[in-house]
Amino acid sequence: METNTTRYWAIHNGMRIGPMSIEELMGYGINGDTPVWRAGLADWCAAGTVPELASIMAPDIPPVPDYPPTYTQPWQQTPYIPEVPRKTEPMPHTYLVWSILTMLFCCVPTGIVAIIYSSKVSSRFSSGDYDGAKHASDTAALWIIVTVVLGLICLPFQILFALL
Amino acid sequence: MTRNAKFALYVCGIVVIAAILLLYASFDPAHNPFPRCIFLSLSGLKCPGCGSQRALHAIIHGNIMQAWHHNAALIVSIPLLALLAFSGVAKNRFPTLYNYMNGRIVIWSVFFLTIGWWIVRNIFNW
To answer: What is the pLDDT of residue B66?
Structure first.
């Protein structure tokens, strides 16, 4: 076949290489911009413009860069767990609405304690103490539940007081 | 929480709220055996929430002045609670509002106003 006998020359790393077969030429890892020459061409041509070379060269593979490549997501054995919580972590619930509601309707002043913990949620969260904020949030919820339960326990006595 | 559980919770919440509103609309706590504040019964002093039930009855019947007379803190709380609830629902759309409403300034204001209201209403018998 004619393609097997055609000899190619190329300018690779500033040096003229050749003569070689098309397979050997590809073995040098040339890209579309590498100057090549074969019999029948007037001068050096970019390899990408020579029809028989362009058809076998993968056009999408990027050339080896001069700098070490940077990877956005390096592969690692274990999933990446940040040491510090991200700034975008949502603030835990303050349960302020429920604190106010239980204070107005349960007649048990323990709702005040829930408000104190509500304020700790935001102050700890703004100082970056996410775990402390979460703990204060859970404690606030606990005190709201305590207030509601105390209110329900007192309910029969409250009605009794109203009947007296 | 799954979508269905959330929906069920909302339906339960609406039913409970509707039942409470109907109860307080039908009966006046001033003349019926509604729960009476234990703190008031034992100490003779009003708690911050005293008068809330009578105030709720008055509000449902459109009598804001009478509600204000029973418990002024409840009237003041309604817009605050509405804004707080809105900031919670629209947390993602208005994060600044949510952070402000759940921030130190608002919470400590609620705390000190409540304590202040507790003291002042017993001095002036509000």
So the answer is: 94
Residue A78 pLDDT exceeds 70: no
Residue A22 included in any domain: yes
CA distance A86 to A128: 9
Q: For residue A152, give the chain B residue with the closest CA.
A: B35
ipTM of the complex: 0.78
Contact pairs from chain A to chain B, CB under 8 Å: 94
Closest CA to B81 of A118, A100, A92: A100
Q: Is A69 within the bounds of a domain?
A: no
Residue A112 belongs to domain spanning:
96-163
**Buried b or exposed e, range B68-80, using 16+ CB within 10 angstroms:** bebbebbbebeeb
Evaluate if residue B80 carries a pLDDT over 90: yes
φ, ψ (nearest 5 deg) of residue A16: -80, 125
Say whether pLDDT at A102 is over 90: no
Note the pLDDT of residue B120: 94
Residues A100 and A159 in one domain: yes
pLDDT for the residue numbered A143? 92
* Structural domain includes residue A127: yes
For B107, the closest of A103, A119, A163 (CB atoms) is: A119
Q: What is the torsion angle, in degrees rounded to the nearest 10, for the CA atoms of residue B98, residue B99, residue B105 and residue B109?
A: 30
Higher confidence at residue A104 or residue B66?
A: B66
In the beta sheet, which residues pair with residue A16?
Answer: A11
Helix (H/G/I), strand (E/B), else coil: A70: coil
Say yes or no for a CB contact (<8 Å) between B114 and A158: no
CATH number of residue A48's parent domain: 3.30.1490
Domain membership of residue A60 (yes or no) is: no
Number of domains in chain A: 2
Mutate to test the interface with B, among A104, A113, A148 (most CBs of B within 10 A): A104
